[in-house]
Amino acid sequence: MHVPDGFIDAPVSVATGVVAAGAVAVSLRGARRELDERTAPLAGLVAAFIFAVQMLNFPVAAGTSGHLLGGALAAILVGPYTGVLCVSVVLLMQGVLFADGGLTALGVNITDMALVTTVVAYAIFRTIVKLAPHRRRTVTVASFVAALVSVPAAAVAFTAIYALGGTADVAIGKVFAAMVGVHVLIGIGEAAITALTVGAVVAVRPDLVYGARGVTGRPLEIRSSPLAPAAPGQVARADGPVADAARAPEPDDARAPEPDAARAPEPDGAAVPAAAPKRSARRVWWAGLAAALLCAGVVSFYASASPDGLEKVAHDKGIDKKAEDHAAKDSPLADYGVKDISDARLSGGLAGVIGVGATLAVGSGVFIVVRRRRAAAESERG
């Protein structure tokens, strides 16, 4: 849904730029409350992952494709304020390096794809987790519904912006029907990607999912995994899950001591508490980075070549006749390929890897600075 230059006139582009700048400023302040020393690097990874998965266009109808917008995914994983910043970083890198989404339309794209999707998705997500049974599955279901609704909401927002500043003489009713219709289908793909990703992280490290905090009346159970060492106040069991130490005791043969040679032996059948006061997110970070590089560097070659929802509607309704050349059209990475490399697979894969690295570096830098400013403010108050 990247809006190119020329679709929206100058006054409305400026107005949405002001809205976007205000949203980013507010989000920078709000992100200080959401980020800590572990989640700040993960927020940069979330931005890089969204960049990578946005390269994976999937078919939704004859001659039309869709891709992840990412607002719901970012908001649920790292918080709504940080989520706005994550998607904004992605849009900035796409516009500057890859000529994807107009530079004069950057305010439109941030307002539509970062602000609207994040606010709508997180509001729906929080409503569901408050009203539904407090279980881990609720987080995944709420993620699906929130992401599903956020995409057509962005389509409605684009239609409203186009009604105010569209440069082509097209009936708004037709634009609305076409945009919402195709983006409901795209929303299903967005919902599936979001729910699978959130569910995977919740399964191994629910403590790293912002939206899962405080959802359940008891701690979320964590499956035994190399990514999920036991946490303080929990006990390890030989049959897989890690349960809260306060729960009712199991039969004597159901428990096994945690394999940590540094601990004193416990009587048979006794609960063995975890050792580390804090659990590192390093393995999750590396796993996420590997997934992002795989998506951008390899899987993206097999993505659908059909135009996405906005491109298809713009072509069918004649909106694209007003499109202008991108200011970065001569970028060596324009159109997600490396200039002067003739092999399409190598060119696209290398461009994707470069994009993941650049987005990770910029995003991590932003979030680490935000985190340090919070730490400095706390030390001054202390």
Automatic annotation (TrEMBL):
<feature type="transmembrane region" description="Helical">
    <location>
        <begin position="284"/>
        <end position="303"/>
    </location>
</feature>
<dbReference type="Pfam" id="PF01891">
    <property type="entry name" value="CbiM"/>
</dbReference>
<feature type="transmembrane region" description="Helical">
    <location>
        <begin position="40"/>
        <end position="60"/>
    </location>
</feature>
<keyword id="KW-0813">Transport</keyword>
<feature type="region of interest" description="Disordered">
    <location>
        <begin position="223"/>
        <end position="275"/>
    </location>
</feature>
<keyword id="KW-0472">Membrane</keyword>
<feature type="transmembrane region" description="Helical">
    <location>
        <begin position="349"/>
        <end position="370"/>
    </location>
</feature>
<protein>
    <recommendedName>
        <fullName>PDGLE domain-containing protein</fullName>
    </recommendedName>
</protein>
<dbReference type="Pfam" id="PF13190">
    <property type="entry name" value="PDGLE"/>
</dbReference>
<feature type="domain" description="PDGLE">
    <location>
        <begin position="282"/>
        <end position="372"/>
    </location>
</feature>
<feature type="transmembrane region" description="Helical">
    <location>
        <begin position="7"/>
        <end position="28"/>
    </location>
</feature>
<keyword id="KW-1133">Transmembrane helix</keyword>
<keyword id="KW-1003">Cell membrane</keyword>
<feature type="transmembrane region" description="Helical">
    <location>
        <begin position="141"/>
        <end position="164"/>
    </location>
</feature>
<dbReference type="InterPro" id="IPR025937">
    <property type="entry name" value="PDGLE_dom"/>
</dbReference>
<feature type="transmembrane region" description="Helical">
    <location>
        <begin position="105"/>
        <end position="129"/>
    </location>
</feature>
<dbReference type="InterPro" id="IPR002751">
    <property type="entry name" value="CbiM/NikMN"/>
</dbReference>
<feature type="compositionally biased region" description="Basic and acidic residues">
    <location>
        <begin position="247"/>
        <end position="266"/>
    </location>
</feature>
<feature type="transmembrane region" description="Helical">
    <location>
        <begin position="176"/>
        <end position="204"/>
    </location>
</feature>
<keyword id="KW-0812">Transmembrane</keyword>
<feature type="transmembrane region" description="Helical">
    <location>
        <begin position="72"/>
        <end position="93"/>
    </location>
</feature>
